[in-house]
Amino acid sequence: SAVISQKPSRDICQRGTSLTIQCQVDSQVTMMFWYRQQPGQSLTLIATANQGSEATYESGFVIDKFPISRPNLTFSTLTVSNMSPEDSSIYLCSVEWLAGETQYFGPGTRLLVL
Amino acid sequence: AQTVTQSQPEMSVQEAETVTLSCTYDTSENNYYLFWYKQPPSRQMILVIRQEAYKQQNATENRFSVNFQKAAKSFSLKISDSQLGDTAMYFCAFKVVNDMRFGAGTRLTVKP
Question: Searching chain B, which residue's CA lies closest to the CA of residue A94?
Fold first, then answer.
């Protein structure tokens, strides 16, 4: 079965700094997504990462705060910019091999902002 | 807008027994997918089971089965012969095209 990896697995950052999270899949996928899971909460979709074009952001999330890249069909990055303690969350990438069907998740990145 | 409701924030079950987790959803769509995901303390979201709305037959995966009631918009998960490794958060999810919504989750504890 395919492997979805995320780097880093966890990090502790100072407020005002930025962190880039990588999501790598070992086979080409159609769709890639980024989610945020705040402590004790469910998952909230941040954006759909579009290959070769700007990401599609959900309401409440903006490109300046969460820039996303997807240079090819196996890789995407999410940057959390100008971090504050409220950004402390788990960030998860997910993928679909067939568009509109099952999403599979990476292992997540646990971020703590001090 | 699609919504997903899990009314049981926490549940517990004795090892080897059976437990049922509830999920209801609201949609005007006719074609969609429903999922149960498991999130153990390691935080990785693991697909447990999937149901296509057009299929009347309930999905099963080993010890996991669902009771899908389309008219009632209900999608419960039954775990048989519960094991200690089943201890996790369980999220019900609804998906139509690229719009995926998650419930608030049910924390399941399996007791020895």
Answer: B45
Contact status of B62 with chain A (Cβ, < 8 Å): no
Separation in Å, CA of A89 to nearest CA in chain B: 11
Q: Which pLDDT score, from 0 to 100, does residue B74 have?
A: 97
Tokens 């705060």 sit at which residue? A65
Strand A109-113 to strand A10-13: parallel, antiparallel, or no bridges (unpaired)? Answer: parallel
* Residues spanned by the domain of A53: 4-113
State the total domains in chain B. 1
CB A102 within 8 A of CB A30: no
The residue segments making up the domain with residue B91 are 3-111
- Domain CATH for A97: 2.60.40.10
Per-residue pLDDT of B77-100, as tens digits, reads 999 999 999 999 999 999 998 789
Rounded to the nearest 5°, which phi and psi values hold at B85? -70, -5
- Provide the number of structural domains found in chain A: 1
**What distance lies between CA A45 and its chain's CA centroid?**
9
- Transcribe B16-56 into DSSP letters: TS-EEE--EEE-S-SS-EEEEEEE-TT---EEEEEEETT--
What CATH number does residue B68 fall under?
2.60.40.10
